[in-house]
Amino acid sequence: MSDLSAFPIASTFPAKHPERLQLYSFPTPNGIKVSAMLEEIGIPYEPHLVNILKNETWTPDFLALNPNGKIPAIIDPDGPGGKPLPLFESGAILVYLAEKSGKLMPDDPAGRYETMQWVFFQMGGLGPMFGQLGFFFKFAGAAYEDKRPLERYANESKRLMGVLEQRLDGRTWIMGDDYTIADIAIFPWVRTVKEFYQAGEVTGLDTSANVLAWLDRCMARSANQAALDIPKRA
């Protein structure tokens, strides 16, 4: 039986199946990415709900796993060399799982790096900008009298949406004919803009036909539908 006792998080969230990959997450856009990836590749895993609404990522046990205090994070009991591997940052986890499973990443080096550049486009651009837009458009920031922050993030979000719209022109998926971790990285954030922030107009999503059609294709995948509620909220 796999031994996870070296990880403090295992005492907070005891594993029923310690031989499986352990997922510590919450169904936010970043959390959905990893759940969707795990559903796609079929590696056995055990999800644990880390309730960010109760600040459970700031406990000492969780910070020992991810000192940045963010979901998602994983422990793979069968990591490289057969040793347990703890890992945080959703983009890094996607790359790791793609390489571990041999799925959702091109085999040729050029295609691999091209795929990763779009994952990093999401990590460094879409995610941070869309997240800030959500704060100033939908949440507490919407009450700020100074609207310059909202304008800044709305304009940048609209520009980034345009980049994605252009990339998807004539393509089924981000990388063309093949669904990859680039699609998995990006779709939860676009879905959040549309469904949760309801910011389709200010981001240009409402008029981005290529992106909307691609999002529909993403959401038609059973793995992505399932991932919206993994880990299941209480």
TrEMBL record:
The keyword Transferase applies. InterPro entries: Glutathione-S-Trfase_C-like, Glutathione-S-Trfase_C_sf, Glutathione_S-Trfase, Glutathione_S-Trfase_N, GST_C, Thioredoxin-like_sf. Keywords: Transferase. SUPFAM superfamilies: GST C-terminal domain-like, Thioredoxin-like. Residues 108-234 form the GST C-terminal domain. Pfam families: GST_C, GST_N. Residues 18-105 form the GST N-terminal domain. Belongs to the GST superfamily. This is Glutathione S-transferase. It comes from Aquibium carbonis.
